[in-house]
């Protein structure tokens, strides 16, 4: 899992990439059960620049946001899955509820989020807009969401 970096490592990498004139794209999320909606966001994110950095909510962070019973897949497993995708250059785990500190560290050119967000709700938009960065919202793939997949699995298998 050579793509998985600590916050300190990604800080050094980001500075080097910026000196080289690379466009850094950032997205974040739980990525608990990977589905086509995630893939669309990751593909769009990668298409916007040279380097895609994915901020991954830690297990603790997900429990703060989603509650008991989540994540379904632990952070080590989620890192392994994300690291397999060719469009993902780096994965960084963050412990907080939001990636604000991580965004301040990376200072990406773009923040990409799925259509379940409105631009004004995107954490870090204020940070990157100060230096000309942009927020891009990828249209929602309504057929898929992790919560709906969990619900569907539960409904289909609750009698087993």
> What kind of sheet is the major sheet?
6 strands, parallel
CATH superfamily: HUPs
What is the CATH architecture term? 3-Layer(aba) Sandwich
Alpha plus pi helix count? 7
Number of strands: 6
Order of SSEs: EHEHEHHEHEHEH
Mean of residue pLDDT values = 92
**Whole-angstrom Rg:** 16 Å
Give the class from helix and strand content and strand pairing.
Answer: alpha/beta
Summed up, the domain count is 1
**Widest sheet: strand ordering:** 1-4-3-2-5-6
> Can you tell me the CATH topology?
Rossmann fold
Helix content: 40-55%
Report the principal-axis shape. Answer: globular
CATH class descriptor: Alpha Beta
Low-confidence runs (pLDDT<50, min 5 residues)? none
Task: Walk me through the topology.
Blueprint (H helix, E strand, L loop, with lengths): L3 E2 L1 H13 L4 E6 L6 H12 L3 E7 L1 H8 L8 H9 L6 E5 L5 H7 L3 E5 L10 H5 L4 E5 L7 H12 L3
Parallel strand pairs: 1-4, 2-3, 2-5, 3-4, 5-6
In short:
This protein has helices at 7-19, 36-47, 59-66, 75-83, 100-106, 125-129, 146-157; strands at 4-5, 24-29, 51-57, 90-94, 110-114, 134-138. By secondary structure, the chain is an alpha/beta fold. The chain has one domain: Rossmann fold (3-Layer(aba) Sandwich), CATH 3.40.50.
Give the tags.
Rossmann fold, single chain, 6-stranded parallel beta sheet, 160 residues, alpha/beta, globular, 41% helix
Q: Could you walk me through the main structural features you see in this protein, from its secondary elements to its overall organization?
A:
By secondary structure, this protein is of the alpha/beta class. Helix content is 41%, strand content 19%. It contains seven helices and six strands; from the N terminus they run βαβαβααβαβαβα. The chain has a six-stranded parallel sheet with strand order 1-4-3-2-5-6, sandwiched between helices. β2, α2 and β3 form a beta-alpha-beta unit. The termini are far apart. The relative contact order is 0.20. The model has no long low-confidence stretch (mean pLDDT 92).
């Amino acid at each position: 899992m050579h793509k998985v970096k600590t916050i300190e490592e990604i800080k050094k990498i980001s500075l080097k990439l910026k000196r080289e004139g690379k466009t850094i794209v950032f997205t974040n999320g739980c990525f608990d059960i990977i589905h086509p909606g995630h893939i669309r966001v990751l593909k769009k994110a990668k298409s916007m620049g040279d380097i895609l950095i994915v901020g991954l909510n830690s297990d603790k962070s997900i429990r703060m946001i989603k509650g008991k019973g989540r994540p379904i897949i632990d952070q080590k497993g989620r890192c392994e899955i994300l690291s397999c995708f060719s469009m993902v250059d780096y994965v960084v785990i963050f412990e907080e509820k939001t990636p604000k500190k991580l965004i301040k560290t990376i200072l990406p050119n773009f923040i990409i989020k799925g259509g379940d967000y409105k631009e004004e709700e995107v954490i870090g938009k204020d940070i990157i807009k100060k230096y000309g960065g942009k927020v891009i919202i990828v249209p929602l793939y309504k057929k898929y969401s992790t919560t709906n997949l969990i619900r569907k699995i539960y409904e289909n298998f609750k009698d087993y």
